[in-house]
Predict the structure.
Amino acid sequence: MARTVLIVFLGLVALFGGTFWGSAWAAEPWVAVLELKGVINPVSARYIDRALTEAEEGGAAAAVILLDTPGGLESSMRDIVQRILNARIPVIVYVYPPGGRAASAGAFITMAAHVAAMAPDTAIGAAHPVGIGTGQADNTVVEKATNDAAAFIRSLAQRRGRNPDWAERAVRESISSNADEALRDRVVDVVAPDLGSLLRQVDGREVQLAVGRVTLRTADARTVNLEMNLVERFFLAITDPNVAYLLLTLAILAIYFELANPGAVLPGVIGGISLLLGLLALGMLPVNLVGLLLLAFAFLLFVAEVWVTSHGVLTVGGLISLVLGSLLLFNPGGPLFAVSLPVILGVTLTMAAMMALTVGAIIRGQRRRPYTGLEALVGQVATARTVLDPTGMVFVNGELWEARSLNGRVEAGEEVKIEGLSGLTLLVSRLKPPEKPAPAEAVPEPTEVRKEEVNA
């Protein structure tokens, strides 16, 4: 009985005690910490949206985005800016760590934050659009994109009470500022050496949310890192232009190997998976259709080399198409969305080596004497079983064949070489030319013996 009472008591303590401490833990203020590093792309935008939603639903006092980016896609940048503008909790963008930057798209994201902060030895600016939207070099298109970007960042600066003139110059003139200059010019609100200092400095600030004004209470708040999950990290990795390009070229190589060696299976599976992942990655990047078509054409030329005797001409054309497609695969957007030349060179040399081996094997196979079938008889030596004048029977490989001599009469027992076939008749030639009969020796005429010599 006592044991039962003790078990029930401990269960009640665990139930109500867990509820009490869980409520107390939930009531403790906390700040969500997000890390946005590298090129801004659709995966980055989805991560920010998910993490901010999680922070809002979890009752976070604020969210801090640790930003270090060279820029990225304009469409993804706008998605992140819109999410920050409509956030239900204050969003602090902190350009961090020292040595980091908020360039190009990063400057827009920083301007959209309720509180903009920088660590020492960081930079912000250089927000001129490069290949925004279409990636065309037409002056009218570039001018329209620049004007649109300038108006957008200026409105963000005005909304947050920051320097709109500097923001517009960052787009039109690509100016940049370090942390101290940005603070002096009212580009950012705070310069802090670390996250703890930042949370203490912004404590007590009032910020304007979409739902009204809110006072930040962050000095004693605990920080919770909301990192990318495994799926987001995986998609972030494959959306790197070099990785996406390598997936496509791996698909080309693997599928080519499968077609050249039917039944291998594994190369076909690897090629199919690589192709699907590569196309998925390209769907998130600014792809140039001409470059993609050139890569597809290179693949067709490589496959055609297996079936068409071109002595390497199709391979050379495929390599040229591969290089051009690699260079044109992504719309012009600076080094952020381009395949690096060492990667292109490595892939091209690998494909050239593989195709050289393939073409060499094809040429050797065409020159090699066949070992099976009727063609395998050509070049072999047979023995005439009957007189060939010009037709008769020969014996080869344990079989009797009808044969026709190409160079005259062949006696039974002579060896002949098979030169070719005419239907089921072997065309043969004598191995040794017929021997000419030796000339008859001259018989000396008998000499007369004189009688007198005899008598003597």
Observations:
- The chain has 15 helices and 16 strands.
